[in-house]
Amino acid sequence: MFARIVACFPMMLALLAGPATADLAQVMAAVRADKWAEARTLAGQTGPEAEALVEWRALRAGEGDFAACRDFLARHADWPGLDRIRADAEQKMPPDLPAARVLEFFANARPLTGAGALRLAQAQGAQGLEGDAQAEAVLAWRTLPMGPDTQADFLRLFSDLLASHHIARLDAMLWQGKRASALNMLPLVPEGWRSLARARLALRDMAPGVDVLIGAVPPELERDPGLAFERFQWRARKGRNDEAIAILAMQSDRIDGLGRAQSWGNWRRIFARVEAREGRPERAYALAARHGLVEGSDYADLEWLAGFIALRLLEEPQTALGHFGNFAAAVETPISLGRAGYWQGRALEALGRPEEARAAYAQGAAHQTSFYGQLAAERAGLPMDPALAATGPLPGVPDLKARPVVKTALALHAAGERNLAEVFFTHIAENLRATDQAGLAALALSLPDEHIALRVAKVAAGQGVVLPQAYFPLPDIAAPEGVPKELVLSIARRESEFDPAVTSPAGARGLMQLMPATARDMALRLGTVYRPAALTRDAAYNARLGGAYLAYLRETFGTNPVLTTIGYNAGPSRVTAWIEGRGDPREAGVDVIDWIEMIPFRETRNYVMRVTESMAIYRARLSGKTQPMRLSRDLKAR
């Protein structure tokens, strides 16, 4: 009898458990296979987070009607990736949807598509809001790409209103690179503008025969800023720098010569630095300063660059101070605020105003997680902020784990969906109150997941909240003999943000982002087996090979962190070439700060600063004690 009961025990447990259950990993496997019916069935057996995730993925894949999109947006307004669902909803609005419901849909968000803008304008007109409807139609016409059917509907409903805006629409689509929308406008504009548009498109496409098309542009449109920009960009892409710079300088001197000044910003920064490196500081300053911008990241970058050139290459500290002040007013992150304080201090020192300089340095020193914040602290004679050596846990937020979107993020991580979990955590951080960021970072560290914690901490830093435990996490990474652990941690933090499974577009792999050839060489150097699959599966193996590469670079270039990090990022040959071309930054007669700022590659310039700033923080985190502010000495190490 007892034996029969034991034999039936599994069946009894199954009956008590109720319906069959599935886990989120199974659900997501079905989603990735586009098996939506199976995914929904499995999600129903798993729980509400799984059901919402399937619905989210299905709607983002276009698997849903307007009502499904609208309802999901209403129920999950705090989820990531909603713009795609909203844009799809705009395209799928039923023709008979009442005007009041259309206005309700757009009550808190602008249309993302031409089709959405058309429905909003129609609804506004139907509700007697004629002025709003006309304004919406003109705004959409001048800014949004749209297909031929939507364009035809706009013309049918607002033909007379939009007639005077056809050229503006064509010009906007050309600047945005919306080729199809631009071509659809050609029948609506004068012949001269058709010729201009064909020339601009051909230049952007790097098409053959552009000279013929440029020659067909009528004289009154030859000075069009958009045409000048495409001619400039064509030359820049071809490597014809002198010709490109000549166009940029000429257009910068003309009233309205730039058209959309922001489109020139990145190239302007590149060429200003080229001119500076090649010993033409006056031309470099003109390119950086005459940007025509009033806001944005390019504005900030170019104001700083103009100040740097004025101070260090033209020896005009008063001019430099004005640019550094503009830069300071335009930035918010610790990296940029540290930079602002340091360079304002340098300009004030050069002007013989030491007290004001020290105050500026002190402002920069308030941001000691940054390269220039640490240099500013040194100049001001200030110690390291004790908070940076923090070893205790971050404070939690009691109700955070109960929030549905956070529960979904945690469920994804538990199911092994780290990439999607990261998307959710990052989005949550971007929309979280500054006071709650520590709780979210603490939650990520408790998983444990240093990569996601760092992603959260970077968002928090952008809000002015520094969380050292998450911003500079301490995963268990070994350092080889002779290589400081703070260097290994700083490199891994910069390379992969502690993601052991990531592969870069260039093919670098794992925690230390090793290229396969380098990893193979280091395995040979260590006398160990080269296991390519382990580069993204075994963090300890990856770190061992990465540490060996750092040891090799230190043997080659000494203990100088500038040269070591350049070698790791850009290759040892670049270290040798730049020393030969610009001097050795370790030498007494070479200003290492200027040397770093004149590194030709933006990525490498930034890389050197981010790694070297991290080393001081990691020394403090590893020891649990504040450290002397010695970055300037470290940068000159031999």
From TrEMBL:
Q: Which domain of life is it from?
A: Bacteria
- State a GO cellular component annotated for this protein: membrane
Q: Which SUPFAM superfamilies match?
A: Bacterial muramidases, Lysozyme-like
UniProt keywords (A-Z) are: Signal
A single Gene Ontology MF term assigned here is: hydrolase activity, hydrolyzing O-glycosyl compounds
Q: Which residues form the signal peptide?
A: 1-22
Task: Identify the PANTHER family for this entry.
Answer: MEMBRANE-BOUND LYTIC MUREIN TRANSGLYCOSYLASE C, SOLUBLE LYTIC MUREIN TRANSGLYCOSYLASE-RELATED
UniProt record similarity statement: Belongs to the transglycosylase Slt family.
Name-wise, this protein is: Soluble lytic murein transglycosylase
- The species this protein was found in: Rhodovulum imhoffii
